[in-house]
Structures are given as C-alpha cells and as structure tokens.
Amino acid sequence: MLELILINISGADRPGVTSALTEILAKYDAGILDIGQADIHHTLSLGFLVKTNGDVSGNLMKDLLFKATELNVQIRFSPVSIEDYENWVGRQGKNRWIITTLGRKLTARHIALITKEIAEQGLNIDAIRRLTGRAPLNDDEPKSKSCVEFSVRGTPHDVAAMQRRFMQVSADEDFDISLQEDTLFRRCRRLVCFDMDSTLIETEVIDELAMRAGVGDQVKAITESAMRGEIDFCESFRQRVSLLKGLDVNVMQEIAENLPITEGVGRMMEVLKRAGYKTAILSGGFTYFGNYLKQRFGFDYVYANELEIEDGRLTGRYVGDIVDGKRKAELLRIIAQVENINIAQTIAVGDGANDLPMLGTAGLGIAFHAKPKVKETARQSISTIGIDGILYFLGFKDSFITEPN
Fold it and tell me: What DSSP letter does each residue of 144-203 carry, written as one string?
C-alpha cells in the first residue's frame, strides 16, 4: 500500500547530513516528491515529502530515526493523505509573486507589516531569503543595505489595493517594497534604460550650466516646475536653453569631470555588464554629459539633447528633436527592437514626470528617489538606498554581486 510521509529534520548543520539521510531513503527505494533545505546561522532545516511502500515504511522511519540520533539532529514524521497531496499538486499552477523589501536596515516591524498584507490578500509564503550580506551588529553605517525577498503563491484579492498599500507603507516606514509577478520575463530581463539627471547623477546638468551663465535661479525654477509636471517639458526646455546663450563650451568639460555620481552606479554597471544586460541613457539632458558617463561606466546607448555651438559658445538653441517623455518611451521600444528583446524584458529607471511614459512602457518601471507625482504613479520605487538597489529587484544576491571578474 502506498504511503506518503513528510519528514522534517532540524539541528546543527554540518557536511554529510543530507547525504546520510538520502542514502537510507534510497535503500528503501523511496520516491522523493518534494525537497527543501535552508540554513540560518548554521542551523539546518531540511524537509522531504516521500512516497514509499507501507510494508517497509516502519523500517524506513526506524533507520532514519537511528541515523538522526547519530547525527545529533531532530527528526519528525507526519503522514500526508493522498487527497491532500493531490490538492497541493493542483495548486502548483497558481500565480506566483516576488515581494522585495529593501532599506538601510529592516526591522521586525517592517517584516510584520509585509507579512500581514500577504496574509490579508490570501497569499501563502513559499520561501524567504536574504539577498544582502550578513548585517553588522552596528546598524548605523550610513551606506548599509538590507534586503529580504519573499516568494509567495496564490491570487491576491485585490492586486491594485495591495500595491497601493505597499507604496503607503513604504512611504510611512522609510523602506522600499517591490511587488512583481514571478513570470518568465521577470527572471530574464535584458535591457535597462536610465534617466540621467537626478538619477545617474545627483544634479540637473542644465542647472549647473545655468549657474556658470549667471542665470541659475531662473533656470532652476523652470526645471523644478517641469519635473513636478506643472509645465510642458518641451516648452520648459526651450526656455532654459535660451538662457544659456553665450556660455563658453569649455565649461562643459569642467562640469562633466566633477559630476556628483549617484551612490551605487559603478557597482550596478559592473554587475549588469557582467550579467550581459544592455544599458541605455535616455535623457532630457545633454549628449555631452551622457557620452561622458557612457565612456566612464560602459553604457551601450546614449540618447539626449544636442546643444548648438558657434565660435566656442552656446547659441541658446538646440539641434534636432527634443528628447522628452514621449521620445524616451519611443527610444526604449526602438532599442528593444534592435536588440531583439521583448518589451516585457525591459527596465526603466527615472525620477521626473518626463520619465513616466518610459516607466509605464517598460516591463519593470522603477521610480528612483522620485518626485511625489512620479512615486504615486510608478509601480515600483527606490527611495532609501543607492541606484544599485535595482539589482535586488532583479533577484541578485550580494554573494553573486561581489564575485570577482
């Protein structure tokens, strides 16, 4: 007679435990229907769901119990009915979701808020794993990072409400939450498109140029209004560029060499390139500075605005079409097509209102240290750590990220 037995083992982890126990299962020709193992601070949690002939199950459990005693681990046996097993099999096609929590530090309160929402949405947690390295006891390190990923199964009662709740909790509790459906495309993203100003760099280049031209306050006011979505980007762009008329172009090199690079750009680009991702800068800023970042960090594409120059000075005009929000979304689609990448495999990262079209077009749109209007609209956001936080949204672990080339 067929019997199904759930076997749970716990205790101090050491090499050879799994090998010794599976040798006994093999001796009795037991079939393994499911298996899982985790290790937390050298403490083992190991489980098998096995099927076996009822004539030998008693001897099988006896031998496992003796071996567990010899290995100094605890073992527990639980019978599983065929009906329960078939119900479990029937649920294997249910929706799966990845919930990523990220911040300078994560507390029990953060985890409690996340798991409460998971439970209230009728979802079941299949696995929890830490993506960042082991946390130091001193959690005051200003550049520290903590990330925990939940793999959950089921159909939420209300996905939109769940997303809104996560965004609200994120804002209230000062940590970031990402909710992604665990699809094939989520596991094989291939193209990442970035805004430049206030995303890859911690400034707006046009403001830097304006300060050198003596019109800083005027340009900054127009910039902030445009980023809040209060005035049309193209019109604001024309107004700001016109104020730069007469500026010596040599100023651009000085600004480029002193750009304040956003925390995590170098680390992020090293990992993305090593993993084979294509990367692009799609900016409402200027090509001169985009090309500087391309050369420094190895971006594959740069699309931005070209300033007109005559006799070594800016004319207050631009060359070609303006790269606005609509154009960024178009460029994302074009690059994906050129690289033969499904749009669902793309990622867009930006902070301003003119980034919303490409954030909405990409398979994964991430608002990075974004303006309030952008955070309210975006499905994902990072506001607590550097831009390398997107690596955790992609499922990278620190242990992989820090591997040598």
Answer: --EEEEEEEES--S-HHHHHHHHHHHHHHHT-EEEEEE--TTGGG--EEEE--BTTTBSS
Q: What is the mean pLDDT of residues 77-101?
A: 85
Do the Cβ atoms of 360 and 374 come closer than 8 Å?
no
3-state helix, strand, coil in the chain (%, to 5): 40, 30, 30
What residue type is 11 in one-letter code? G
Q: What is the pLDDT of residues 309-353, one digit of tens each?
A: 999 999 999 999 999 999 999 999 999 999 999 999 999 999 988
Q: Is 232 a catalytic residue?
A: no
Catalytic residue among 34, 139, 174, 195: 195
Does the annotation count 29 as an active-site position? Answer: no
CB proximity list for 15: less than 8 A, separation 6 or greater:
none
Annotated catalytic residue, options 29, 34, 172, 197: 197
Give helix 108-120 / helix 159-173 axis angle, nearest 10°. 170
